[in-house]
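I'd like us to work through together how a protein chain folds, taking it slowly. To get us started, please write out a protein record for me. Go ahead whenever you are ready, and we will take it from there:
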Amino acid sequence: MDIWLQQLLIGLSVGTIYALIALGYTMVYGIIKLINFAHGEVFMIGAFTGYYALTAWGLGFIPALLLAMGVSALLGVTIERVAYRRLRNFPRLAALTTAIGVSLFIQYTTIYLRGAQSEAYPSLFPNRRLEILGAGINLDALVILAVSVALMAILQFIVQKTRTGKAMRAVSFDLEAARLMGIPVNRTISITFAIGSALGGAAGVVYGLYYTRIDPLMGVLPGLKAFVAAVVGGIGSIPGAMVGGLVIGMVETLVSAAGLSLFRDAAAFLILILILLFRPEGLFGRHTTEKV
């Protein structure tokens, strides 16, 4: 029982990382119906920003986290302004292929600038373990869980209780009607990209803290799994992205604990297939009617 409780805590920590990344996908899709496949590279840039802040610049964990979030937010806004804004009224396939191109551009620009070698993230809490109901867990995992939950709570507050959040919800519901009502649509979309990218950058830092190794191609697989989490929860739904990330993290951890670690990645995509077959709108999604 202690072992399974320990795996549960680990699964929650991993799941919150996926949830933070998935929130970036679902926020952007909810507001402009775009799958931002460059989001995995924003996550990667956040991880490297945190790494250099901790090692080269000697910052503490919280300043490094905030710096990574700021750099990632700036990158997300730049991507939206340069690559996506002009394609907003084009067919969705144009924006989708552009997103893939931006993703590859960031990956290989990073490799050109610093090389393809991986880096070892510094251990902030070496050999620190806590006992919870008889289950031992590293302090790193608890810090990741606490930071991720706090960031998701702040996001929920922003979306539900602030004027910016109301504007985001209005643009998500009907972009043209929001523009007619005087809502600054372009600024609202930029803020959405900034918030989603900042969460991706934070996910990069806590991912590096947990897995200890980062590299320029690290955003590919976690990005795909986070996209799966967003679809599982219901793409466009913020609570759905949170729950979807936790589901994927828990399933991966339990599959590994059962001795099937080779099938850990496959389990996430099996869940995607089952969701698309039996509930394509996701756990928190809604059926919509579209005129053609």
Observations:
- Residues 2-32 form the longest helix (31 residues).
